[in-house]
Amino acid sequence: ADDGIRDFCLSRGLGDVYKRQVIDNAKILSQTLLEDGFDIVSGGTDSHLVLLDLRPKGIKGNEAEDILGKANITCNKNGVPFDPEKPTITSGIRLGTPAGTTRGFGQAEFHKIGTYICEVLNGFQLDGVDTKAILEVQKKVIDLCRKFPIYGGNL
User: How far apart are CA 85 and CA 91, in angstroms?
Assistant: First the structure.
């Protein structure tokens, strides 16, 4: 797993400090999700990716991808080990930290992102599409991104 992030950093001229921050950010994201009762494949991460198994929450990967996207959080549906779902549906999502880390997010910001993911997915688990939770998280994500603008202040 470490080779993938090493290659990513090398291809972009990024150093060991950035590499360490990407991994530390993924670990805090993983920890935040675990603390809320989500299941992380392999129990955590040592790389730039977090693979979230949604089966314990009864949520499909394609549902999570869609609902998080509406809340301005990008993820990809992803199969998990022994996944009973079709590849177009899946039982998991993949979350990555390089884009947010490049933007300047640190561990505090990834902890917030983890709580936002929990808010949206827990709301969905309980009530289906929870428009209120989605709109609240949309605003929080926009506010967070405004604190870390990219290229001329754009979100």
Answer: 6
